[in-house]
Amino acid sequence: MTASSNGLVLAGEFEEPTREAWLVEVDKAIKGGDFDKILVSTTLDGIRIEPLYTADDIAVEHDESGFPGFAPLSRGGQIAPRVDGAWDIRACVTHPDVAVANAHALTELRNGATSLELILDLDGEGGGISVRTQADLDRVLNEVLLDIAPVSIRAGAYSILAAEWLNLILADRGVKGVQAAGCLGIDPIAALATHGEIPQGLNEAIVEGVSLVQTSTTPRLRVFRASSVVAAEAGASEGQELAFALASATTYLRAMTQAGVDIATAASHIVLEVAADVDVFATIAKVRALRHCWSTVLQASGLTVDAQYPGLVQVAAHAGGRWLTVVDPWVNLLRGTAATLGAVVGGADTLTVAAFDSGTGLPSDLGRRLARNTQLLLQDESGIGRVMDPAGGSYYVETLTDAFAAVGWKGFQTIEAEGGLVAVLAKGSYQLQVAEVAAKRDKLIATRKQPITGVSEFPLIGERRPEVSTAPAADTREGIRLPGTATTANPLKARRLAEPYEALRAAAEAAKVTPTIFLANIGTGPSYVARATFSSNVFGTGGVDSVGDGGYENAEAAAAAFKASGAQAAVICGTDAAYGEQAIAYATALKAAGAKFVYLAGRPGDAKADYEAAGIDDFAYMGVDVLSTLQRLHTTLGV
Which helix (H) or strand (E) holds 194? Predict the structure, then answer.
């Protein structure tokens, strides 16, 4: 209880709540069910997520989170709050045409973005702004005020060359010292994990990056980026992503210090980057845990972060990638909002939000504008950036932060013990571990235990989607080739989580006739509605439209309606009691009417053999592998 200034004890008339009393009420609510099965979940790292957290779950006598700007940085990397609650709103520019890319960059900056991320294509493989010379990059940045707008480069193995061009452009324009800001994007480890090859050799690329640090005269223009986004987009868990980021950053830190760069300067030239996911609390905890772990690495290296090093640790977040969908892409706006909230509340310094329609290729003008405005609205209207560590003190967030830090640190130690991230990627062991976790997530998605709104849940057949932006003609100039002995490894293959469902939807949409399934509803009352709705939802995720006209008094009426519908498959929907009385009759009649495939909505229980003998081919219920069910139906319907 809390006493006010006048001595009033707030909520004093209520009994002090206890966990034991809460458990009694919970048991009543779940009617004696299994507490763990109903209310407890587990992350892909094996972290147990409880339904309730209290002060007993964290160390309240000594707050290990510390103060903002002081080790271990859980509460934030800055000592003072963000000015006006603003963070760095970074706009991503990707259009292949240099002139169009420049127009996009200027539009972004004039309408609220505070920095740019340039995705560059130097080797002619596509996937970014087609540049081959310093002059090309200069044209991309035409009229961009480089003394005001930070620029971040993403050019894979070619980032060294692009960085040199950018430095020359800055010199030509007289931008020097602290005026220049951003990141040169030297991240050969992420490039190796993404493409499976570093043409000039990984060690050579790192050495070249270290050379840029040693000759740098622009302290706010960081050289290295230690990004774990490639791991996240391949399906990594939070712990695996943290381990990748820590191991990558440590590799760069070690290379710089071994070359004679002091630890503080080396740390100041690294940007940590993670993926912002749609799970708000997981994103918050992941960003906080990353700062905590990196602070521990720096402390072990002889540098304790405190007021002497304001803003030393910089975290960039990228919202997009694996959670983007092509089907019902409008929901991506909500996903982007959730990811933005998690990243900013977690204390990310810089955030890039993918356009909602970028899953299909080049984002549209609308997509770019909404991606930018998602951040602007949250910043200016909600003010979420005005409070330092707003989630700090939350028993759940603090516990989850500690748990993520623990699993991330353990993974990092394992990587280091095996010779470092480069050696682990060369052996392929990290890739296998990520693939195992991705397979577990795939199973959750296939069974809809991890639903994707608009895709595996609440599909809209015949939805209106935004027009796809047309890509320009390919650049006919030969791509740049880097000399040297290549370093190779099995890449971490990026993929979107919705792809298996989207493949089914695409196949159904390409069919000459929209595939349909008949709802053979038992009865004329509302008793069948729940399972009929469930069935429409399940089959709609595969692009199969549900048809039918309410409920039917008997099997004969249902069979006649089925025949008139033109459908080739049917699903029987009703209550368990109705199934016991009429399911077999319905199945027999539907088969006789020409149904190629008959489902029963619900678990069959002990009657499974009898149902199958009557002609029921499969069962649709909560927890079923929806993807396998739909693939089988597509085959039957000839989709």
Answer: helix 188-195
How far apart are the C-alpha atoms of 339 and 116, rounded to whole Å?
A: 19
| In contact, 613 and 604? CB cutoff 8 Å | no
Integer Cα distance of 508 and 462 in angstroms: 11
Q: What is the pLDDT of residues 203-215, one digit of tens each?
A: 999 999 999 999 9
DSSP state letter for 568: S
- Calculate the CA 233 to chain-centre distance: 7
**What single string gives the DSSP state of each residue in 343-359?**
HHHHT-SEEEE--TTGG
CA distance linking residue 224 with residue 282, whole number of Å: 26
Q: Which fold has domain 502-637?
A: Rossmann fold (3.40.50)
Q: Which of 356-365, 463-472, 551-560 is the least confident region?
A: 463-472
Please state the domain extents for the chain. 2-57, 86-356+410-446, 502-637
The one-letter amino acid code at 34 reads D
224 contact partners, CB below 8 Å, separation of at least 6:
183, 184, 186, 187, 209, 213, 249, 252, 269, 270, 271
Q: Which of 22-31, 39-48, 52-61, 135-144 has the weakest average pLDDT?
A: 52-61
Q: What predicted TM-score, i.e. pTM, was given to this entire model?
A: 0.94
CATH number of 86-356+410-446: 3.20.20.240
